[in-house]
């Protein structure tokens, strides 16, 4: 069966989360991803084994000390054979290493060069450091995510990292498609702050159109989009956005027949009373009891799952979202691919590579003789 990105070669200079997640998705679709890692410890994510193993399957590893001229020559030769470069350094770093877009474009005008950084390649913040929590705070997401006392809370996973990876995939594939028409590569600039701001469509509308500053997601103004504690300390999640039929069915299940027929405006006006009443009713039974009551009701609900429950869910398992890659001692259980294509589905073919596992073969491919490779190893340029 054909692979969607078969024949596409990607040089991946990135480390940790966003870039490696991006290139893993592309590798799952058949791209050849060469993970270019520093000599020594390699990708810093190797220090966090469980993360590294989840986002680095289907790749090759080449260990280069890019501060060494010989390693830069290796990279330049590979860039001449590549379609895409992905990097996640702070702006200016790749120029100092002689592997920036302008340098590689002169070698290969068809190269597509994707930079993922905190604030992008320009603007007043381009040189500032940051991590996921900073981008979420600056982009307004944390300001809309508060506890019962109005204090902002830290989210349970890395939203900016993940969305920047996904947007990088989209940008790279758009550039590949454009190259089919123009014959030219281009620079793809992904800012993690941009990616956070771009998530806010449902929250920023009032401000952009009227100047009114929102204090919450509009869904939070309703009584039926939230989390309710059960009698055994578990949680029932209700996810009605606005739909009257779903509300009426929930009222039947909760024994709130008198609230049937309330329209959305009425429910918003009576939010505090309705939430209090719903919580009192839901707290009267266990999560198992509510599961029994609600399982045949046509309304959006679910128990709040932990990691183990989520991965053991029959729907998650049926969709192949827990998968295995590798064989024997190298076999790993990993998160599967969410992309279900009928003709060119993603493949999970090989576990994450050992550091420098493919160095020798790749150097030979681009014309380095055994004695040259041995010298570079001795000098610490490659490993």
Concise summary:
The protein has helices spanning 18-28, 49-54, 69-79, 93-96, 101-107, 132-138, 159-182, 192-197, 201-210, 244-254, 264-269, 271-282, 287-294, 307-311, 314-318, 359-365, 370-379; strands spanning 9-12, 32-37, 59-63, 84-87, 112-117, 187-191, 225-229, 235-239, 301-303, 322-325, 332-335. With 383 residues, the protein is an alpha/beta fold.
> What's the main sheet like?
6 strands, parallel
Number of helical stretches of at least 4 residues? 17
Cα-to-Cα separation, first versus last residue:
35 Å
Q: In total, how many domains does the architecture comprise?
A: 2
CATH superfamily of the largest domain: Crotonobetainyl-coa:carnitine coa-transferase, domain 1
The first-level CATH class of the largest domain is given as Alpha Beta
In total, the number of strands is 11
CATH architecture descriptor text of the largest domain: 3-Layer(aba) Sandwich
Which blocks of ≥5 consecutive residues have pLDDT under 50? none
Q: Which fold name corresponds to the CATH topology of the largest domain?
A: Rossmann fold
Q: What structural class should be given to the helix and strand makeup?
A: alpha/beta
In N-to-C order, the SSE pattern is EHEHEHEHHEHHEHHEEHHHHEHHEEHH
Shape: elongated
Q: Whole-number average pLDDT?
A: 96
Gyration radius (Cα, Å) is 25 Å
């Amino acid at each position: 069966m054909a692979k969607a990105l078969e024949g596409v070669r990607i040089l991946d200079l990135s480390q940790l989360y966003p870039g490696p997640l991006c290139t893993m998705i592309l590798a799952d679709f058949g791209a050849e991803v060469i993970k270019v890692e520093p000599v020594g410890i390699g990708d810093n994510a190797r220090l966090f084994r469980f993360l590294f193993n989840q986002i680095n399957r289907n790749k090759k590893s080449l260990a280069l000390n890019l501060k060494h001229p010989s390693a830069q020559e290796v990279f330049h030769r590979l860039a001449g054979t590549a379609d895409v470069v992905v990097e996640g350094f702070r702006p200016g770093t790749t120029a100092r290493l002689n592997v920036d877009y302008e340098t590689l474009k002169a070698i290969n005008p068809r190269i597509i060069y994707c930079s993922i950084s905190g604030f992008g390649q320009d603007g007043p913040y381009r040189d500032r450091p940051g991590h996921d929590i900073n981008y979420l705070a600056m982009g307004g997401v944390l300001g809309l995510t508060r506890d019962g006392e109005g204090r902002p809370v830290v989210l349970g996973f890395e939203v900016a990292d993940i969305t920047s990876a996904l947007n990088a995939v989209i940008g790279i594939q758009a550039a590949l498609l454009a190259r089919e028409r123009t014959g030219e590569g281009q620079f793809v600039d992904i800012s993690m702050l941009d990616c956070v701001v771009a998530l806010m469509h449902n929250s920023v509308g009032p401000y952009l159109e009227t100047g009114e500053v929102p204090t919450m997601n509009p869904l939070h103004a309703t009584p039926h989009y939230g989390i309710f504690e059960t009698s055994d300390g578990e949680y029932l999640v209700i996810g009605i956005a606005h739909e009257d039929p779903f509300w009426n069915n929930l009222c039947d299940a909760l024994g709130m027949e008198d609230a049937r027929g309330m329209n959305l405006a009425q429910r918003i006006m009576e939010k505090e009373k309705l939430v209090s009443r719903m919580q009192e009713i839901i707290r009267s039974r266990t999560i198992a009891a509510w599961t029994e009551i609600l399982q045949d009701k046509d309304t959006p609900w679910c128990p709040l799952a932990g990691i183990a429950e989520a991965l053991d869910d029959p729907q998650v398992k049926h969709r192949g979202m827990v998968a295995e890659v590798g064989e024997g001692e190298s076999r790993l259980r990993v998160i599967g691919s969410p992309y279900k294509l009928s003709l060119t589905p993603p493949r999970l073919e090989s576990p994450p590579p050992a550091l420098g596992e493919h160095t020798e073969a790749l150097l030979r491919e681009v014309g380095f003789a055994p004695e040259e490779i041995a010298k570079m190893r001795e000098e610490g340029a490659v490993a």
